[in-house]
Amino acid sequence: MDLVFLAFAGILGWLAWTSFREARDGHARWTRGLAATPVTVAELVAMAGSVRDELDAPAFRQVVSLSGTVEPLDDEARPAPLTGVESVWFRFVEEALSRGRDDREERQVVAEQRRERPFRLTDGGAEVVVDPRDAHTEIPVAERRRVTDDGGGREFGLFRLVDPTVARERTEWRIEPGSRLTVVGEARLSGDRVRLSAAAGHPLTLTVAERGDHLERSRSRSGTAMRRAVAFGCGAVVALLVAVLS
With contact defined as beta carbons under 8 Å apart, do 128 and 39 qualify? Predict the structure, then answer.
């Protein structure tokens, strides 16, 4: 019985740690969003131009929050894998669904595709370049389709291996040209263009929410995750004490 409580304490401790990490990351995004200077695209381009003229390009570093309209860079929109909709960024995931213990649904990722090419963010006749690689994205699901599997298998001579998959689920997230996007991150000068991209110590966030809504969601999610971490942590301590004292 002691081993059961010890195992239970370990599971709860792991859940507490993952929830704490989620709370910490959410709090960090909230504080970065608060510290970011809200500007328009035109204002950011003008600021960068002034620094470049008076000093030099490497001197321009500004953590900002700005919103604008998404446009392809050099006409590089591509069709998303699931729907074929033209997109400047997409993520596609295919999962195999099967029935596990207690008839619970289990998932396994069997395919994944990403397109993370730079695109333009425009507003008021001005534009900046956004590089979405390694960015934290808060993009809603654009399409989700579930296909029932035929329950087939593979033949091995006299033996047949039954495939436990009961369905496949395909999910697509995408950013389309003409959509509105908010970007929070550090802006730099790259040649004659202002560029926002993720770098060591300088994360980048892409969200379809406006700045105020993004901040409120980050704060709320961080608080919820922290409450879960405390609950799991307390449960782990109680299970450990029971294991030790029993």
Answer: no
